[in-house]
Amino acid sequence: MQPKAVVLLSGGVDSTTVLAIAKNLGYSVFALSFHYGQRHEAELHAAARVSGKIGVSEHVIATINLRVFGGSALTSDIAVPKDRPFNEMSHGIPVTYVPARNTVFLSFALAWAEVLGASDIFIGVNALDYSGYPDCRPEYIEAYERMANLATRAGVEGKALTIHAPLIALTKAQIIQKGVALGIDYGMTCSCYDPRPSGACGRCDSCFLRSKGFAEAGVPDPTQYCGPSEDEDLPEGHYLKVTL
Asked: Rounded to 5 degrees, what angle do the CA atoms 131, 133, 138 make?
């Protein structure tokens, strides 16, 4: 019988790669996505495409409302930062950080894993090409795993639970190369924090890191970026974000 694993799936590059990794390792995958009040709900459509294409045993979209707290550009009316230089992204915690988001998400994954009898949870956090989020660090994952094994019936009864973060030490380029080797079509994914009807904005931190990753990986970027006509502040050609 295949071992079961819960995989947190946002529909972006990282979580899609993690889903493919878990499948490739032989797990029966249970994908978990969240409608949490985020402005970029396009990611949920991407998650549905990914789970259908790669194939999962079940895909659950849990509804929670982090917008009642706000505190982030993704869950309130705070503007999403655009056109930030890369060195600025590498310092400090940006307003796109959603307070305690990964802690909340992992708690839901932990609950589902207990119900399923699964001992493995996969998450696509990354400590290199990221935007300064504190809940993407190795120390955080290690601490959460310790807590999970103290706080659950399975852990108390000796059935240890493991939080897998296989991308934690990889660059975005390395992640994309790994995913391409696994046959992922990244055209079905969505990473943009502020998507428009015709595609990704091409200007937010997430779009920049995604485009930079494809360029450095030497892989054509399949992302559909919106044109300048959809944003009066977007200069002609600017949405072609990274060229190396």
From this structure: 110
Distances in whole angstroms, Cα of residue 165 to Cα of each of 39, 136, 170, 224:
26, 9, 10, 28
pLDDT in tens, 26-51: 999 999 999 999 988 899 999 999 99
Residue 225, in any domain of the structure: no
CA 185 to CA 193: how far, in whole Å? 20
Q: How do beta strands 120-122 and 28-35 pair?
A: unpaired
Token pair for 85 = 């230089």
- Does residue 200 lie in a domain region? no
Angle between helices 172-181 and 205-217 (to 10 degrees): 60
Segments of the chain scoring below 50 in pLDDT: 232, 234-244
At 90-134, the pLDDT tens digits run: 778 889 999 999 999 999 999 999 999 999 999 999 987 655 788
pTM, to two decimals: 0.92
DSSP structure string for 192-220: -SS-BTTBB-S-BHHHHHHHHHHHHHT--
pLDDT at position 227, please? 62
Question: Longest C-alpha distance within the chain, in Å?
Answer: 61
Domain assignment of residue 174, given as a range: 4-190
Q: Are 46 and 11 contacting, i.e. CB atoms less than 8 angstroms apart?
A: yes
Angle, helices 42-54/13-24, rounded to nearest 10 degrees: 20
> What's the structural domain count of the chain?
1
What is the CATH number for 60? 3.40.50.620
